Amino acid sequence: MLTVPMTCDWLCLPHVSDAVTVSLARIVVAMATNAPTRLQVGDAAPSFTLLNAEGTPVSLSDFADQQVIVYFYPAAMTPGCTTEAIDFSSSLQTFRDAGYEVVGISPDAVDRLARFTDKEHLGITLLANPERDVLMAYGAYGEKTLYGKTIEGVIRSTFVVDVATDGSATVRLAQYNVKATGHVERLLRELGVDA
Asked: Model's pTM, two decimal places?
């Protein structure tokens, strides 16, 4: 059994909120136990800067004073991921009208995202995370069951993140192990957005 000291001596950072401290502690425990971190509502959303399909850096803080749907998917140009990306793109204006932006993140390389975006005429922002560090920070990478086998890979996940004016962000909704088909429609309903 792992014992992690939860005292201020261990993890006391000046000017850091309790939510950030709890999130950091959860990440440390997950890393020590090799388990994926599972973010919860109210947790600080991990910041990121990743390249989009055009090779331009995009940061979570770029969406200051906005709500962002951040979704993680296993691989561009695969059937389920294509369905999900097309559904998000088809509903992008509906999301925007309700005050949401949409960002998809996968371990794909930038050139693959560019081909995927062009081939499927996607309107959403897709970001490359081949290092998988952002995927892991959100708990969207780790052990999962696929066709009855336990493997390590991307856990299809969706988050709604409120980004403050100063660029700090808070998780408002966290969903793990979502199904690609029908996911966007369910999310619209859950957010109370009329399609």
From this structure: 0.81
